[in-house]
Amino acid sequence: MAAKQDYQHLARLFYQLEQIKAEGHFTKPIHYSELFASTQKRELLIFVTDLYQTNDEIVKLLDTLGTLRHEIVVFHVLARNELELDFEGYSTFEDLETGETIQIDQEKARQRYKSKLATYLAETRAKMLDRRIFYRTISTHEPLDEALRDFLKQRSKIRI
């Protein structure tokens, strides 16, 4: 969406976000370079993503946008069961992007999983902060509009 200084613009943004359907692979660089490279002024770019990537394509995009001096916000979305690994008994997991499946015994894997997840999230947070990117992990049960409003409130307090 093009930026506008309109009191209803945030409502339009939320509407557009509600209409998005997750599918397929991350876009090729040619699709996003024309969106952000031609503008002469800094923009606030908000990414709502699961940060699943094959070859660091999302991080490369963020690096490109960072060099163009845009202000970047990343909301890293994780499901509650993804955070807690709270399925019962043996479970089969399928990677929606590749179709690969694995079976695990959750009771045996839960502590190891939580430890690795905590390490991954800490490393991801450090990567984003090193790039001067606002980063926040949110759960799918947390309303996105609240996370956006919290960010905008923090941002306005910092700028005063």
Outline the structure in words.
The structure is a single chain. This protein has 160 residues and is α/β, with parallel strands linked by helices. It has one domain (43-159). The protein has 6 helices and 5 strands; from the N terminus they run ααβαβαββαβα. A hairpin with a 6-residue loop joins strand 3 and strand 4 (101-105).
> Overall pLDDT, averaged?
82
Number of helices, counting only DSSP H or I runs of 4 residues or more: 6
Helix-strand string: HHEHEHEEHEH
Going by helix content, strand content and strand pairing, the class is: alpha/beta
Question: Topology, pairings included?
Answer:
Layout: H1 9-19, H2 29-36, E1 44-49, H3 57-67, E2 71-78, H4 80-84, E3 90-94, E4 101-105, H5 106-130, E5 134-139, H6 144-159
Parallel strand pairs: 1-2, 2-5
Antiparallel strand pairs: 3-4
Tags for this model:
48% helix, 160 residues, globular, three-stranded parallel β-sheet, alpha/beta, 5 strands, two-stranded antiparallel ribbon
In short:
The chain is 48% helix and 19% strand. The chain is of the alpha/beta class and 160 residues long. The chain has one domain (43-159).
